[in-house]
Give the backbone structure.
Amino acid sequence: MEDGRYPNLPRVAVGAVVFHNGRVLLVRRSTAPARGQWAIPGGRIELGERLQEAAEREVLEETGIVVRAGEPIYAFDLLERDEAGGIVYHYVIVDLAAEFVAGEPAAGDDGLEARWISKEESLKLEMNPETRRLLSDRYGFPG
């Protein structure tokens, strides 16, 4: 599968915001964009897949957690340019609310770590800015 660099069109991706026992499920990314940062688990939508199906599949692949995805709650552009101004990455990401069903977090295909994060722990993490904004604005996490 291609790595998404230098696309000819924006790519559509999903994330799933999952809480369990007052903690949010996050992954520390092992690949670009946002390599090394903690973020909402998710990834690209496959052709013919609905938003909810993609979110459920991606969370399972990235974390080992089974979820039931709900409605969209947040959307943003992830746009990264190279030094010459070329577009290295352009994703339109739609985050969905999701309900925890089962499982224990374990890093999967493109994550270094996956775990449940409390509000207090989130302060110490290098977090994707959009993830931090979403958690702060919608769920009262520190900004």
About this structure: Residues 20 and 100 are 6 Å apart (CA to CA). The longest helix spans residues 51-63.
